[in-house]
Write a structure and sequence with these properties.
By secondary structure, this protein is mostly helical. 71% of the residues lie in helices and 0% in strands.
Length: 218
Amino acid sequence: MNDDVKAPLTRPYSAPKRAAQAAATRRAVLEAARGLFVERGYSATAVSDIAARAGVSLDTVYASVGRKPVVLRELVETALSGADHAVVAQQRDYVLAIRAAPTAREKLTIYAAAVVKIQQRLAPVFIALRDAAVDDPACAALWTEISERRARNMREFAADLRGTGELRDDLSDDEVADIVWSMNAAEYWVLLVHQREWTPERFGVWLADTWIRSLLRH
């Protein structure tokens, strides 16, 4: 008689596979939420609606992303970063390229091109956030936070431009930052691209040219 005890067969654990599945679920939830927030609005969208469109359970939405305000924040942050997760401005590829560019003209051109890419992802979500901020305190706080963060980043950008010695002397760094901040906004993109039907390419070329003509010495 064989007294050896054989261990039961087990399926090997695959951490990379599980991580990939979790990432795919997260993307599905965010994509479903994006579509619903844009189509219906934030307030009219329930978490159960997001779960149904993503093809997952309600608990999965909470586990993979979070509650509805967190879902909206993640949509904004990933749209800004162009990645599956939030990336601070100073570490984004286009910001590193701007910092490395030797002239103000090049910096502004790089940033205008980046705005075009960002707003194609961000504008519909940011407009949904703006509208939700009217009645929802959490959305209002997020709207204010993102707007103020953008303003701070533009002051850093203005200081970087000033370091080239090419900015107009009659404009302060705060004025330069405010001008760029207002023109890189989702609302500005919507006015020209969505309402006036400019192509993204036309918008990007015009934005760079306008910044160069209005902010730099000639």
